[in-house]
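[Discussion] Sanity-checking designs against the backbone

I'm trying to build intuition for which residues belong where. Below is a structure token string of 76 positions. I'd appreciate it if someone posts a full sequence so I can compare it with mine line by line.
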């Protein structure tokens, strides 16, 4: 899969994280605590206009909490 630019990539990741978080009936606070990241960081990741880069490590932490494969975050 390819993305035209970083903004498009971050938007897709953030949208998918929010989707799986809501599907798991978790609040941003709960996910942030369980993934050991700050609520403000998670909020920025999920924001529609986010251009915040994130590490594979953070993606892995979030994926583990949500019990999904990291690749699911990259699906359009």
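Best answer:
Here's mine. Compare freely.
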């Amino acid at each position: 899969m390819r993305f035209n630019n970083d903004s498009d990539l971050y938007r897709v990741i953030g949208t998918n994280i929010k989707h799986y978080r809501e599907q798991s009936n978790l609040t941003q606070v709960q996910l942030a605590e369980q993934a050991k990241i700050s609520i403000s960081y998670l909020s920025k990741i999920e924001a529609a206009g986010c251009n915040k880069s994130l590490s594979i490590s953070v993606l892995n932490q979030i994926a583990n909490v949500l019990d999904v494969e990291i690749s699911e975050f990259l699906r359009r």
